Amino acid sequence: MEKQDFKIVKSNKVTEIGEKQNKNELKPIQVTPPNHLSVAAKTLYKNLYAEIQKAGYLKYIDQANLEMYCTTYYLYLECEDAIGEYGVWLKDGDGNPIKRAPQAIQLDSCIKNLKSLGFSLGLSFDSGLRQITIKEPPEKQSNSPLEEAGFGAEI
Asked: What InterPro entries does this protein's entry cite (predicted)?
């Protein structure tokens, strides 16, 4: 086996990117869905983007997780269609189930990934509840209008 020499190359792009990220705020999430997403994933992206904008806590750094969430959702839909067409079980010649079908196994994987990605993106019910803040009740006024007028006050 030959010994290979490696060179360390400095790139101006890396320093430029680093400088851009250090300025003020993080970039917002891309408005339009990326072209590499499927039609179903793009539709979900558009719908989620509107909700994400309302919450305002996701930034461009979360973009990859959002894309994976949308793609996994598309795969989930594909698995549901395959299960509807072929069923959950692989069957022998007599029609007896012998093992779980690949689409059922993939569906389980999609569900786990959706839950995990959804949690990291704040797209679950309980994560929405975490955003609700409980305000302190206003201090109760001890002075009633009668007390202010001098009724019931010590003289």
From this structure: Phage_term_ssu_P27
Alpha-carbon gap, residue 106 to 108, rounded angstroms: 5
Strands 89-91 and 97-100: antiparallel
CA dist., res. 69 & res. 117, Å (int): 6
Closest C-alpha among 112, 56, 34, 54 to residue 79: 112
Cβ contacts of residue 28 below 8 Å, gap of 6+? 59, 60
Asked if residues 28 and 60 have their Cβ atoms less than 8 Å apart, the reply is yes
Query: In whole angstroms, what is the distance from residue 82 CA to residue 86 CA?
Result: 6
- Residue 136 is given by DSSP the state P
% of the chain residues with pLDDT over 90: 44
Report the SS3 class of residue 99: strand
Contacts of 115 (CB under 8 A, 6+ apart): 124
CA distance 5 to 14: 23
